[in-house]
Amino acid sequence: MAGILIIDDEPVLTDSLRKFFERAGSHTVTVAHTGEDGLAAFDRWRPDVVLLDMFLPDMTGFGVLERLRHEDPVVIIITGGADVPMAVEAMQSGAENFLTKPVDLPHLAALVEKGVEKARLRRVSRYFSARRGGSARGLLGSSPTMRELTRQIEQLADSDRTTVLLLGESGTGKGLVAEFIHAHSPRAARAFVEVNCAAFPAAMLEAELFGTERASPGGRDVRETQVGQLEMADGGTLFLDEIGELDTHLQPKLLRVLEGKPVRRQGGTEEFTAHLRLIAATNRDLVNEVTAGRFREDLYYRLSVMPVNLPPLRARSRDDLLELIANVSGELHPQLPDAPPTVSDAALERLLKYSWPGNIRELRNVLERAMIMARGATQIGPEHLPMEVRDASGSAVEHYVPRTLAEVERTHIERTLAAHQGNRTHAARELGISRATLIKKIREYGLAPSPRAGARVPSTPGT
After folding, report:
1. Please, what is the Cα angle at 339 between 334 and 340, to 5 degrees?
2. Across the chain, what does the average pLDDT equal?
């Protein structure tokens, strides 16, 4: 269960946010109304995500960020009365995102989910780095193929201007590798900003990346500005996940950024230049996308200066899998100290034979579940593993009831949607397809639509 710490002195807002996230059923929420109380709660509880106001009774949000900096937390700023310089400074001080009040709840929920995943990635990365003396080898394995891939990644980390394209199926560790490259580059002290291109409709993604400008209400000769993630990442690294989903009308604007040319915010009149390193990732075949006219050829060549292909777990050696299982188990154990520290030979054999369609993400989830189920036992045994892993044989499984591929796909999509309470963005991300493709499949298979939250939480007067 993910942990969220809210540091804000507005009772109406904090109560609304607490209820919103607790209703989701997968979050534990703690509220603090001052900076000192928030810092004390962080030390006691170590939450996954911190929602922080910049204007607190006893200190500014910058003071909280400064004292949390060495903890490397995932912090999302939620505040009123902010401007562009403040947003950029907050990002460069360690914040992941910057939202102004009133808060759009679905947008915030998506950012929190991304923050929870990033917090977990950071824990894994820190564990691997400690085990391997800062090497990327712990992320991948020790076979000759993985050692060569490790060497390439470490060279890329040293070359802080080279654009990187990470290729591979969903869950193969592209986010981990992007974090590693940034953390071991000369840009490590600046912001690492991640945007999932599949998580937003095209118009919203443009605003998320480039920011917005609009005339202030009331006809005043003032323009309201919302800073985008490109400006947030200035001097640091921008990680664009699912780059293959980038809308065609946004591709020329991104190309201008890579060419060092100025761009404008959505609806804006002034230009800005973002000085950043871009790391992109996709599970799509971009060459096919170029051939089909869905992806610009010139942008593809700018992105693929140094492509890195991360193989799926089923293509990795037995030794690589053994090392990965040991590393992930070691990273999880401090969080589950009453779980058994070892895996039995019989359970290990099942883990090695399973094909891992969800790759590292699925492996981590299976091991975490097994450790929880095995509390009180001396070892993790086959009985603690999910049925599909327990029955793995390394070969085709007999089908007692013939089913078409369409029936299998429909069932899989339906179960994934149910697991995410109908959230199409999250379900599409897990399925490894775009949100638009998922909506098309929902219509094709006649799946019942799920309600989506659309409320906004107002700020209290005077903020």
Report:
1. 110
2. 82
